[in-house]
Design a protein that fits this description.
- The complex is a heterodimer of chains A (430) and B (358).
- In chain A, helix 3 packs parallel to helix 4.
- In chain A, helix 2 links the parallel strand 1 and strand 2.
- With 430 residues, chain A is an alpha/beta fold.
- Chain A has a 7-stranded mixed beta sheet, sandwiched between helices.
- About 4% of the residues of chain A have low confidence.
- In chain A, 45% of the residues lie in helices and 11% in strands.
- Chain A is globular.
- Chain B is built from 14 helices and 4 strands.
- Chain B starts with 12 loop residues before the first helix and ends in a 5-residue tail after the last helix.
- The chains are: A alpha/beta (430), B mainly alpha (358).
- The interface between A and B is large, with 46 and 38 residues.
- Chain B: It is found in: Cell membrane.
- Chain B: It is a multi-pass membrane protein.
Chain lengths: 430, 358
């Protein structure tokens, strides 16, 4: 009994302590997925995000004097849990980071009513780029249509695409289908033949049927829109069928170090477009090591920290941090609200100088957002697997956004019509 | 003491066959209904509506549909989620083709489509039984999910292949879509669930329910005493799929707001089957108890460490949660293999004879 009383007392004290800790600072929850089928890719991303915020809290005392309360709510990549987490956190949150296309689709209409910015860096719905229609949604710094355009540009750089055949190997899921309309229009413009090969969610790990089809088609290139277990499945299958790896290119979520370590040397030449790059010499890495890792507050490890996904997590948190800082400066207050953060995220100007000021040298390309441009269209680098790690093999590629601006506008207005009444940002000019 | 039945005399057959022969049962139900209709709406937060009350009701309804087929008529089905999907997609098509339609009418009508599909997939049950039938319903599961993916007309040729619930009004207030208020959605769900529960209770107590039970207990004997097995099995498939279809429409329209085809994949079927089994096959109340255990408890457990202020990472909570729920399921099935409803029935019996057990 005595022990129980002591335990109860401890719990009460702990809750008081936790209560006071939460009251201060900016609450930026992250709907993480450290469990479930996609955990292997989730953990490095989540660690990168958390470590950057922990570093800011330890080094600068948060952003602009306000501590960042970066809390994770575990979803296991399940949409149901994601909505639960959104409902749980939305009361105090200044931003929501849904972390899956499925959760984004569910939460997107709700954020418009609840007026909370939704930050989906490099995922979610490409038409979210239209900031006039999607007032509260951001997919900074680049969307899937940017990725598809840049990949095609890169391939074109190796010779005309006329008469070539490109297999589009994609997950049969909203995420994988997303670039299809753009790829189709590019195929028409550039004269290549597009062969979409879907991979069902149940076939992710066993793609022998798909690769049999690819072998029959004899494509010049394979463009892969894969995620989670699908990537490792496709890469091992490509190696097995002796597909020339230098002709296989993936989206940024298909460039996970661990997927390629399985095949090692055999995967040499595999490419993935990316708007983030792990630069071990960047000052931010040294700061994270000093303030977070050495202090024993990181869940990461040396190997993971040198990978692409960990550094992407850092960039995502840095974008959020920059949005917060911009808003704080403009509204002259440390404790910003969701509406003010939206202004901040709409007015990010990530110049080369600002990037090196933040210590992110070479880790992210420069970009800027506006009220009508909620993506930033940063462009990206083509990364190549050299047998041990990813290296940059291209200069900065920038997407030809004008080419599909109409597609963005029409898809966005289609969405708004289907969800009428859908309030749009009337004040936003051009 | 609380459940003393002394003094409650039945003077007519009607009284003896009443829904609640013991007065206290009616009181208990009254209290539950007051809580559901008055107390919860007055006190619940939006979080409670969205993660506890609405999902528990919808899952209970889906499990009830399955329970009619599996628990009352003895036909094992693994295709529940697919039939829910039929209801959801039917409802989506109806409200997009006919936007003037009353959403509640659309939800209730969408069950008709799933009932039709259910009967079609129920036809093999006339020849095959048990596990073999389970495989036939599994075929429905795979085929229908494939159809939801491939038949672009179903999701209005949307590029992402998902359906989004539009904002729907009834009598001037939004009842579905992102603009809808949680409390109003809760009342719509509660109304429909109450109505269908009443229907199911009376169906299972009546003539039809008795033919189902006879079919379940021994189909040859049932046939010998003159029950038309075809009619019995197909009506079970029909009623079950209707309820499941309505649950599916509610699932998407009143709760999720958007759905992709793989939402209706086999994990959802299993989840509903678990609710029905743990709650108790062949009972109506069991579905509610099962849903509270499988759907509600994890949510409560997830929020527990934070409310108590225990500093523990969210991923760890998730792992603990899975372990706790798993062991609870095993625990309940060991102490009462016939499910929670049976457990409650035993408790009630003990209460009636308390404090003088014989």
């Amino acid at each position: 009994m005595k022990r129980f009383t002591r335990l109860a007392a401890a719990a009460v004290i702990a809750s008081l302590g936790a209560g006071t800790a939460i009251a201060e600072g900016l609450y930026t929850p992250n709907l993480s997925y450290r469990t479930g089928p996609f955990a292997a890719t989730g953990i490095p991303l989540m660690n990168g995000q958390a470590d950057y915020m922990a570093m800011l809290n330890a080094r600068d005392g948060g952003i602009g004097g306000a501590m960042i309360d970066f809390e994770e709510c575990e979803t296991g990549y399940s949409t149901e849990k994601g909505v639960e987490c959104y409902e749980k956190t939305k009361g105090k949150a200044i931003v929501t980071q849904p972390w899956s296309t499925g959760i984004t689709l569910q939460v997107l209409p709700k954020t418009n009513v609840d007026e909370i910015p939704i930050l989906a860096p490099g995922y979610g719905f490409s038409p979210m780029a239209d900031g006039k229609v999607f007032q509260w949604a951001f997919n900074i710094p680049a969307g899937y249509w940017d990725a598809a355009d840049m990949i095609v540009q890169y391939i074109e750089g190796q010779g005309s695409l006329d008469g070539k055949k490109i297999v589009f190997l994609h997950l049969d899921h909203p995420f994988g289908k997303e670039p299809l309309p753009l790829m189709e229009s590019l195929a028409e413009q550039k004269g290549f033949e597009l062969v979409p090969v879907p991979v069902g969610l149940k076939e992710m790990q066993n793609q022998s049927a798909q690769w049999l089809q690819i072998r029959r088609e004899r494509p010049d290139y394979v463009v892969m829109w894969g995620w989670g277990a699908m990537n490792a499945g496709a890469i091992t299958e490509a190696v097995k069928t002796k597909f020339p790896m230098e002709n296989m290119l993936g989206v940024w979520w298909a460039g996970h170090d661990a997927d390629l370590k399985i095949v090692g040397e055999d995967g040499k030449g595999y490419k993935s477009i990316s708007w983030s790059f792990p630069n071990a010499d960047a000052p931010v890495m040294a700061d994270i090591k000093k303030h977070v890792v050495d202090a024993g507050n990181s869940q990461s490890n040396e190997e993971e920290m040198s990978g692409v996904f960990y550094s992407r997590g850092i960039i995502i948190s840095a974008i959020l941090g920059e949005g917060i800082a911009t808003a704080q400066k403009h509204f002259d207050t440390a404790e910003i609200d969701p509406g003010q953060l939206r202004w901040g995220l709409e007015n990010i100007n990530m110049t080369e100088e600002r990037i090196s000021e933040l210590g992110l040298d070479g880790m992210v390309p420069p970009f800027s957002t506006s009220c009508s441009n909620h993506t930033g269209h940063s462009g990206g680098w083509m990364l190549e697997w050299d047998g041990e790690k990813f290296v940059k093999v291209s200069d900065l590629l920038t997407a030809n956004v004008d080419n599909y601006a109409e597609l963005i506008a029409s898809s966005a207005s289609e969405y708004a019509d289907a969800n009428a009444p859908w309030p749009v940002n009337e004040d936003c000019e051009g | 003491m609380l459940y003393r039945t002394a003094g409650q005399f039945k003077t007519s057959y009607t009284a003896d066959q009443a829904l609640f022969p013991i007065r206290q049962d009616a009181y208990l139900l009254g209290i539950i209904l007051i809580f559901a209709w008055v107390v919860f709406p007055l006190t619940a937060s939006e979080f409670t509506f969205q993660t506890l009350l609405i999902p528990i009701l919808i899952y209970s309804l889906a499990a009830m549909g399955l329970n009619i087929l599996t628990g009352y008529a003895g036909q094992l089905s693994l295709g529940t989620a697919a039939f829910m999907g039929v209801g959801a997609y039917a409802c989506y098509k109806m409200v997009t083709i006919m936007p003037w339609m009353n959403p509640v009418v659309a939800i209730l009508l969408s069950g008709v489509f799933s009932a039709g599909v259910g009967v079609a997939f129920g036809i093999p049950s006339l020849r095959i039984k048990g596990f073999y039938l389970a495989i036939a319903t599994l075929a429905a599961q795979f085929f229908l999910v494939w159809l939801f993916e491939k038949w672009a007309w179903l999701y209005n040729y949307n590029a992402s292949g998902a359906i989004q619930v539009p904002n729907l009004k009834m009598f001037g207030v939004y009842i579905a879509g992102p603009q809808a208020d949680s409390m109003i959605q809760y009342f719509v769900v509660l109304g429909i669930v109450t109505l269908l529960t009443l229907l199911c209770i009376n169906l299972t107590r009546g003539n039809l329910g008795r033919t189902w039970k006879a079919t379940r207990d021994m189909d040859i004997a049932a046939e010998l005493i003159g029950i038309n097995l075809m009619k019995s099995k197909l009506t079970a498939f029909m009623v079950s799929s209707y309820v499941v279809g309505v649950a599916g429409a509610l699932f998407v329209f009143m709760w999720r707001g958007a759905a992709e085809p793989n939402l209706f994949d086999i994990p959802l079927s299993f989840r509903i089957l678990f609710i029905a089994i743990i709650g108790g096959l062949g009972s109506i109340m069991g579905n509610y108890l099962g849903a509270i255990l499988i759907v509600g408890l994890p949510v409560v457990l997830n929020t527990l460490p934070q409310t108590l202020g225990i500093p523990i990472s969210s991923a760890m909570v998730e792992h603990l949660n899975i372990m706790i729920i798993g062991s609870l399921i095993i625990f309940f099935l060991i102490i009462e293999p016939h499910g929670l409803a049976r457990l409650w029935a035993l408790i009630r019996e003990k209460l009636i004879i308390w404090p003088f057990p014989y």
